[in-house]
Every structure is written in structure tokens, then in C-alpha cells.
């Protein structure tokens, strides 16, 4: 069945969200400083610390999300409530600067994952299904390309393809084992792959918070951009998935690339 005009408009809107400029450009506009320049000045030890904090944040967020994502609630997503919560954590983190990242990021990541799940539900995902819950985690990998990506392999569908095997294996593990042994290799591999991409965006956020005089108000604003970015990624991703359920993956990808 061919897509209706309204569905084509939805797919075009999803592509605009998913292929939008990254958070670095948005934050640079806010702080008035190119984030790439600040990133180059950050010590290597901080970069390593950000990678470690990112991985631990995803692990903690996933623990909480897997326990609470299966509530069968319908209706529109509550983006503003989640955004207000992350803004509050950003204000606290901004007041104490970069040292607060290790405390603030796990909280922010958990709230963002809950917001992404809320969006998924509003687009018809059944969050009782392990694959649907892990698709929410995958959204965190849509914010930036991995350091290991080939230059020609960028964009939304390339990111999905890179994570497809890890998602499938992790979903199979959760289906068989449930929430027990969620530290199994399949889950660890998924977290590692998501973290390699999510850490790029976290580094950009950390760089912005390293700009002098950002402070609490700036930290709140940066976190608003941070969650807004992933809410957009989530909305675009789950619109595409809803249309794929109706019309097939190949057809939606073909039309997506033609738009």
C-alpha cells in the first residue's frame, strides 16, 4: 500500500529531525564559542573520564529503564516535564562546573531515556517488547557518529545498521533471561557501542560547560538543548519505525533517501 500524502509529510518531518545539525552547532550558537575549539583544549584525561562516565551513565539508566518502560500507557508524550527535570539537573551541574558531570550525567541520561520511551509509546511502540525498549537506548547513539565510522557511513540508517546486530543479540538475551544477568556480554556489547557514539555528544556538552561564566543558568540552557536534541532524535526514529510497520523497511528507506 502506497504512503498517503500525510504519511509522506510525516516521513519528511522525521528526516528533517534525524539529519538535523548536531548539538555542537546548537550549543556553539548559545555560548558564542565554536565547541570544536574548546574540545581541542580539553585534556586527554578529561576525554577518557567522559567516556567512562558515559558508559556508566547508560548502564544505570538502562537498569532503571528496563524496570519501568513496560507500563502500557498511551497518549501524547510529556516532553516538557522531562525537559524541566533535565534543566533542573543542568542548573545544579552548571553551578559546580565539570566536576559535577559524574553526578549529573547519570540522572540526566535516565530522564532522557524515560522521555524517549514516552515518545516511543506515543508512536505506537509496545514497550513490553525487549526490542522496543532497546530501540529507546539506540536513540542515544543517533546524536553523533562513532570515531570508528567510515566517512561514507554517516546518517540515520547507517547508525541503525551499525547497531542492528547488537540490538538483536541484546533483545534475544532479554527475551530468554528477562532482567536477570543484564550484565551479560550481549548487553555489555550494546552499551559499549551506544556509549562510543553518545560520548561524542557528552564531550560537546562538557566542552560547553567548560566555557567560562556558563554557570547554573548556562548549564540549565545547555541541558535543555541536550534533551531537546534527543527528543527530536527519538521522535524522528519512532515515526520512521511506525511507518516501517505499516509499509515495510525497504520501502520507507527508499522514500526516505529520495526525499
How would you portray this structure in words?
- This protein is an all-alpha fold.
- Helices cover 76% and strands 0% of the residues.
- It has one domain (5-144, 191-258).
- The radius of gyration is 18 Å and the shape is globular.
- The chain starts with a helix and ends with a helix.
Summarize the structure.
With 259 residues, the chain is mainly α. It has eleven helices and no strands.
Keywords:
single chain, 0% strand, mainly alpha, 259 residues, 11 helices
Low-confidence stretches: none
Please, what is the oligomeric state?
Answer: single chain
Largest sheet: none
Q: Helix count, per DSSP? A: 11
Indicate the topology.
Blueprint: H1 5-18, H2 23-31, H3 35-41, H4 44-68, H5 79-96, H6 101-122, H7 130-139, H8 156-177, H9 185-210, H10 215-247, H11 249-258
Amino acid at each position: 500500500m502506497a504512503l498517503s500524502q500525510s504519511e509522506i509529510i510525516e516521513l519528511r518531518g522525521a528526516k528533517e529531525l534525524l539529519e538535523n545539525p548536531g548539538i555542537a552547532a546548537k550549543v556553539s550558537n548559545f555560548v558564542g564559542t565554536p565547541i570544536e575549539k574548546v574540545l581541542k583544549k580539553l585534556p586527554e584525561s578529561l576525554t577518557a573520564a567522559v567516556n567512562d562516565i558515559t558508559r556508566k551513565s547508560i548502564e544505570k539508566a538502562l537498569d532503571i529503564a528496563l524496570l519501568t518502560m513496560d507500563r502500557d500507557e498511551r497518549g501524547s508524550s510529556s516532553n516538557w516535564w522531562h525537559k524541566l527535570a533535565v534543566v533542573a539537573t543542568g542548573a545544579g551541574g552548571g553551578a559546580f562546573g565539570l566536576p559535577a558531570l559524574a553526578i549529573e550525567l547519570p540522572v540526566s541520561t535516565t530522564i532522557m531515556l524515560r522521555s524517549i520511551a514516552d515518545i516511543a509509546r506515543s508512536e505506537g511502540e509496545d514497550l513490553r517488547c525487549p526490542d522496543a525498549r532497546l530501540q529507546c537506548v539506540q536513540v542515544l547513539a543517533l546524536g553523533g557518529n562513532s570515531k570508528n565510522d567510515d566517512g561514507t557511513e554517516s546518517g540515520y540508517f547507517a547508525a541503525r545498521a551499525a547497531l542492528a546486530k547488537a540490538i538483536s543479540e541484546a533483545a534475544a538475551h532479554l527475551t530468554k533471561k528477562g532482567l536477570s544477568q543484564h550484565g551479560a556480554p550481549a548487553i555489555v556489547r550494546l552499551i559499549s557501542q551506544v556509549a562510543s557514539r553518545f560520548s561524542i555528544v557528552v564531550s560537546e556538552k562538557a566542552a560547553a560547560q567548560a566555557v567560562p561564566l556558563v554557570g547554573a543558568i548556562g548549564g540549565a540552557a545547555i541541558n535543555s538543548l541536550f534533551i531537546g536534541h534527543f527528543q527530536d532524535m527519538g521522535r524522528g526514529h519512532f515515526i520512521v519505525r511506525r511507518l516501517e510497520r505499516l509499509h515495510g523497511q525497504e520501502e520507507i528507506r527508499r522514500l526516505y533517501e529520495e526525499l
